[in-house]
Amino acid sequence: MNFKGSFLLIIFLFSSQAICQEKKLETIKFKVEESKNNPLPGVSIYVKGTLIETSTDFEGEAFLDLHNNNQTILLSFLGPQFSFKLKNNVDFVYIDLASRRVSYFKNGEKIKTKKLMSDSF
After folding, report:
1. Are the C-beta atoms of residues 56 and 74 closer than 8 Å to each other?
2. By CB count within 10 A, which of 17, 21, 54, 58 is most buried?
3. What is the pLDDT of residue 13?
4. Among 113, 65, 53, 54, which residue's Cα sits nearest to residue 91?
5. pTM to 2 decimals?
6. Average pLDDT, integer, range 36-51
């Protein structure tokens, strides 16, 4: 194999390795409540800077398939608008609008709780 062929093979191997290392999609569950045990249907949930969005059902639940890489999530509904940074390695996000807090969970265990940020679109 000549130098040119070797060079092309090396480029191909590096590019295929980079493609294989791309993060897989993970399904993140969101639960939005106006207050404890008072789900809030119809809340729009957006990933900032993308066209990815969903909205909560009558149980205040929604799901998004994401690469789960510290993206900013925006909440929109009648009333104030909020945002928060999505944490890596979570599979459930609980949003309590009464206390203005967001809690992150992985495999049923709470990882962290933070305050929601007021936001405008």
Report:
1. no
2. 54
3. 47
4. 65
5. 0.73
6. 91
Taking the C-alpha atoms of residue 121 and residue 83, their distance in angstroms, rounded to an integer, is 10
Domains of the chain, first to last: 24-118 (2.60.40.10)
Q: What is the tally of helices (H) and strands (E) in the chain? A: 1, 11
DSSP helix/strand/coil, 83: strand
- From CA 60, how far away is CA 110, in angstroms rounded? 19
pLDDT at res. 7:
44
Alpha helix positions (H), the chain: 3-20
Is the per-residue pLDDT at 70 higher than 60? yes
Give me the amino acid identity at 96.
D
In whole angstroms, what is the distance from residue 56 CA to residue 43 CA? 5
Express each pLDDT in 85-111 by its tens digit.
Answer: 888 888 999 999 889 999 999 999 999
- CB-CB contact of 85 with 71 (8 Å): yes
